[in-house]
Amino acid sequence: MQRVLIVLPSYNESKNIVAMVNALLDLKGDQIETYVCIVDDNSPDGTPDVLANEKKADPVWQERVTVHIRDKKDGRGGAVRHGLEEGLQTQPSFEFFVEMDCDFSHPPPAVLKGVALLNQGNDVVLGSRYPDGTIEGWPLQRRVFSFFANQLARALLSHQVNDYTNGFRFYTRKMVELLVQYEQRNKGYIYLSETLSLFLTHKASIAEFPIHFKNRERGVSNTSVSEVTSALKGIVDIGVRYRRGRL
Which of 57, 90, 156, 177 has CA atoms 20 to 30 A from the CA of 63? Predict the structure, then answer.
């Protein structure tokens, strides 16, 4: 039985989190068992209390769900990294790791597809919106930014990857061990491009499969103008460092 840890960074998602975790725990695949690690940066909407109550009441949560509440916000990238680092310390160990959003933007059933591609020998698997996936619920401005951010990343890094900025990802244990060896330079979603530059440098086998991305079925987007500006600057910096071989 393969043990798969799914890391969920949670920000102000008290309305989503219980349903999302239960959907992931209910996944039935060939010889896999899903576990969930929730990392919440002390959300002011009461998410920590919701998680504590659910874990106290549900025996399945007690066995297969861990919750980490951090005192201050450290961005999505920092939250995922924290969950991955914690997962590496768990015994018995996890064979595969997944990161995804907890608001149903990423479809839980697609986890089985990503894990299947890891089992085919890939090191990293991306659930991608480009070029063959679909996007629902995004305004034009957001679509334009995402498109150009990814085109910039492909030009500066590698055309091998189509979607540098989506956070639905699957890793072998070896890749997570590699990832945590390197210092995190960027916060938020830009860390997604940073980690891919690392995997590309180490010649990892990267596969992609198309997904249906639905923009925040519940909850409110946290993306701001300052984050968009920071992301574009970050992509350029990552590209320059990648081409110079300075990770």
Answer: 177
What span, in angstroms and rounded, lies between the C-alpha atoms of 31 and 2?
Answer: 6
Res. 225 pLDDT band, cuts 50 70 90: low
Q: What is the per-residue pLDDT across 93-133, written as a single tens digit (0 to 9) for each?
A: 999 999 999 999 999 999 999 999 999 999 999 999 999 99
pTM of the model: 0.93
Locate the domains of the chain by residue range. Answer: 2-244
Question: Check: CATH 3.60.150.10 for 2-244?
Answer: no
DSSP letter (8 states) at residue 125: E
Q: DSSP secondary-structure letter at 184? A: P
- Name the DSSP class of 22: H
Buried b (16+ CB within 10 A) or exposed e, 16-55: bbbebbbebbebebeebebbbbbbbbebeeebbebbeebb
What is the torsional sign of CA 179, 184, 186, 188? positive
